[in-house]
Amino acid sequence: MHAEVILVDQRQTTLQQFERRALQCPEVVACYLVSGQFDYLLRFACRDVDDYQRISDAWINDLSMGVARIVSYTELKSVKEFAGFPL
Q1: Can you list the residues of the chain whose pLDDT is less than 70?
Q2: Domains plus CATH for the chain?
Q3: Residues 6 or more apart in contact with residue 60 via CB below 8 angstroms
């Protein structure tokens, strides 16, 4: 599962709080601060969609995280996975 996360603002304290919580979440296997229409791109490894929904609902409902919106993308098929840099 991939998710775009949009924060309520881009203040340093908001970014730090979100990053701290993302680092503590074992289901988050990758987290990138990006530029553009959203603030973070995350990759989740969850047991099922209900598990992912539990996490995303908790993040949105926890005002201290500063999450305004989460847009999710379910992987239908893996065409190519990162296997390391070609050398």
Answers
A1: none
A2: 2-73 (3.30.70.920)
A3: 67, 69, 70
